[in-house]
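quick one, 419 residues, struct below
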Amino acid sequence: MTHDVTIMSTERTKPKQDFDATREPSPMQTASLTMANPRERMKVALPKFLQPALTALTGKPYVGEQVKPQSPWGHLQRAFLLHVLGIIGTSLCVSSGSVTWIAVPLTLLMTLYGSRLLRNVIMHQCAHDNFIRKKTTDHVFGKAISILLVTEEFDHYKVSHIRDHHSSRHQTRVDPTVAFLFDEIGLRPGMSSLQMWKRLGISIFSPRYHLRFLWRRIASHFHGTALLHRFIVGTYIIVLVGSIQTMDAWEPFLWSWVLPMTLLYQQSTAFRLASRHIFMRRLPSQRDKSTLGLFTLGIFIGSECPPITESLVKRTLGWMWWWTRTICFHLPCRLGVLVGDGPAHDFHHRFPRHPHWANYLGARSEDERNPGEGWPAYKEVWGLHRAIQETFESLSAADPADYGTNEDSTGRIMELPEE
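---
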């Protein structure tokens, strides 16, 4: 029987052991690593015309694949178009009623996908002055997206992201990703992975989590910002609410924008931050290439195809189950959580301002084949659920002394969950 996920590396790991303070800093020691590659099996087992779609879904090209080039503007256009079409589609379905409601889950996913692309890809690259590599233009786009989506205020996000995440503070208690897992989800070193899953599950349905998250998103635009910025945001909210009231369109608005941009968006953030990085048993005293590359895995979406050695009946049932998992689980994970260059986030942390970020699929594959001197081997995991499990198991084995778990580092309004 095949497994849903596979972790790959050129290195083998040792069995999990109790924490030992004398050990050298090391990455996760939790899963057996194998050289199997589900994407290569997909290339052989599935038709040629499906290969581009499979590459987009998994986030990983097959060996030797020539990936179609993309541009920063193409990413922006696609993100904005999908976001708007999703909102319009949901509004039409809700207004029409009857059988059109069946399409609402798809239009909601489209809205969420577009918004996550805008926030996690475009705004993220703008924070690195790397969207089109023109600082002023990138800043304008970053500010505009943060206002449009009412996500965290761009300048606050940029400072925190560079200062606390892309620095020697990475994966420390002040890193916003770690602060989110500790303070919002309630995770701690030494907890079992089952306890962490339970806390994640409780949080994503918790009114406190969602109201706190939403309040911080809104408040960040009015705390420590310029008067002009506050005026623009305030005007935007007043005009938006006034327009909805005038058109008596509260029901379509609540379904088409409020639902995907609050509940679904904030649930997606929780899943993404819970899978974003792994923890070391001990934080390294010195940060360099040899340690920086160990904090992040490539996270690819998909599972192994049924083996050709099984009987016809087993292969048929296996393919039915494979397509069910792909369409009903892996595809929503890709569109709702691990959007854009999310699978190649390990590549981003090695090269935060890579000039060809828009072609992340090919860029990561090329660097994996020809890694720079001093960098550790790339490691990857298949399946979002498995990536979360790796984060949880590595945190469970981390040294509690490395994290001031009694201190709530998210007390300041500007320190929001950021990606």
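The chain has a mean pLDDT of 88.
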